[in-house]
Specification:
- The chain is about 75% helix and about 0% strand.
- The protein is globular, with a radius of gyration of 20 Å.
- Strands 1-2 form a two-stranded antiparallel sheet.
- The protein is mainly α and about 300 residues long.
- Helix 10 (about 230-240) crosses helix 11 and helix 10 runs parallel beside helix 13 (about 280-300).
Length: about 300
C-alpha cells in the first residue's frame, strides 16, 4: 500500500469513526448550553445501538431500527431529565446510574429476547447501504474519502450546522443558552426552565440514538455488549475542549476519529502489542482535558 492509498483509507476511516462522536457531541453540547452535564451520553448511545438491532430485526427493516433507536434514545433521555430536573437528583450520579442501567439492561435483554450472549448479529438484518453518488463517488481520492459512506455519516455532517442554527438563530435555542448562562435570570424573564431542559436533553437523546444506530447498523449489523466503549465520554470531552461551540466540537471529534483510525492501522503494521495503540484515542482525551485546564489557568492569570 503506497502513501496515497494509506492517506485516503485513513481519512475515510476517520470520518466514519468520528460520526458517532459528532452526533453524541452535539447532544452533549445541547445539554452543556442548558447548564447540564450529560454524563449519560454513553448509556443513551448504547440504548440506541441495541434498539437499532433489536427493532430492525423484529420489524425486518434497518431504517425502522434507526427510527426506533431515536425514539428509545429520547425516552431514556426523558428518564434522565425526570430525575435531574423534577426529582432534583445529583446530575453526575444520575448520569452514571443511567449508563450502568443501560449496560446491564441491554446485556440482560440480549439473553432473554434473543438467547444470545455478548454479540447478536441476526442474518436477516442488513447494514445501511453506503450512498453511491453518481460521478462524485468515482472521483479519484475525493470519491472514496467523501462520497462512499453510510447515510448516517452525511446526517452527522448536517447535524452540526443545524445545531448551530438552532442554538443561535431560534427562539428555543436562545432560551436554552440563556438558561445555561444564568438560570435564575432566565426564569425571571419568563423562560420555562424545565421545559427547555427537557427539550435539550430529549433532542440530545435523539442524536445519541442516531450515534448508537451508526455503531450498530452503519457498517455492520450487530449489537455487542458495551459496544460504545467510552465514546460517550470522548464526545463529552470534545464539547468541553471546544467550550460548547458546535464547529469546534466537531473538529475535536474528527481529531479523535483520526487517532482511532490510526490505531487500527498501526496494529496491522507493527509487532507492538495492540493494547498500546488502543490507548491512543484515550491518551488524546487526557491531553485535551489537560489543555483545557491550562487554558483556564492561563486566562485566570491574565
Amino acid at each position: 500500500m503506497d502513501v496515497l492509498d494509506f492517506a485516503v483509507n485513513l481519512t475515510a476511516s476517520s470520518l466514519r469513526l468520528a460520526t458517532p462522536l459528532m452526533l453524541a457531541a452535539m447532544a452533549g453540547l445541547l445539554s452543556y448550553q442548558v447548564g447540564l452535564i450529560n454524563i449519560a451520553l454513553e448509556g443513551l448511545m448504547l440504548a440506541g445501538a441495541f434498539a437499532a438491532v433489536a427493532f430492525g430485526f423484529v420489524l425486518g427493516s434497518t431504517w425502522g431500527g434507526v427510527l426506533a433507536a431515536c425514539i428509545v434514545g429520547a425516552l431514556v433521555a426523558a428518564l434522565f431529565a425526570l430525575f435531574v430536573t423534577d426529582l432534583r437528583a445529583n446530575l453526575v450520579v444520575t448520569g452514571l446510574a443511567i449508563n450502568f442501567l443501560v449496560l446491564g439492561a441491554t446485556a440482560y435483554l440480549l439473553q432473554i429476547l434473543f438467547d444470545s450472549r455478548g454479540t447478536f448479529a441476526p442474518e436477516t438484518l442488513n447494514s445501511l447501504t453506503p450512498l453511491q453518488i453518481p460521478v462524485l463517488s468515482d472521483l479519484p481520492v475525493l470519491g472514496p474519502i467523501l462520497f462512499r459512506h453510510s447515510p448516517l455519516v452525511y446526517v452527522s455532517w448536517l447535524v452540526i450546522p443545524l445545531t448551530a442554527l438552532f442554538l443561535y438563530r431560534t427562539r428555543a435555542g436562545i432560551h436554552i443558552r440563556a438558561i445555561g448562562e444564568n438560570a435564575e435570570a432566565a426564569r425571571t424573564a419568563g423562560i420555562r426552565l424545565r421545559a427547555m431542559q427537557y427539550l435539550a436533553l430529549m433532542l440530545g437523546g435523539v442524536l445519541c440514538g442516531l450515534a448508537g444506530a451508526h455503531l450498530a447498523v452503519g457498517e455492520l449489523a450487530l449489537f455487542r455488549e458495551n459496544m460504545t466503549a467510552g465514546r460517550g465520554f470522548i464526545a463529552l470531552a470534545a464539547v468541553y475542549f471546544a467550550a460548547g461551540r458546535p464547529w469546534r466540537s466537531a473538529l475535536a471529534c474528527l481529531l479523535f476519529g483520526l487517532f482511532e483510525a490510526l490505531q487500527f492501522r498501526l496494529q496491522t503494521m507493527s509487532n507492538t502489542p495492540p493494547q498500546f495503540f488502543q490507548m491512543l484515542p484515550y491518551i488524546m482525551v487526557v491531553i485535551m482535558l489537560t489543555l483545557i485546564s491550562f487554558r483556564k489557568e492561563w486566562h485566570k492569570g491574565w
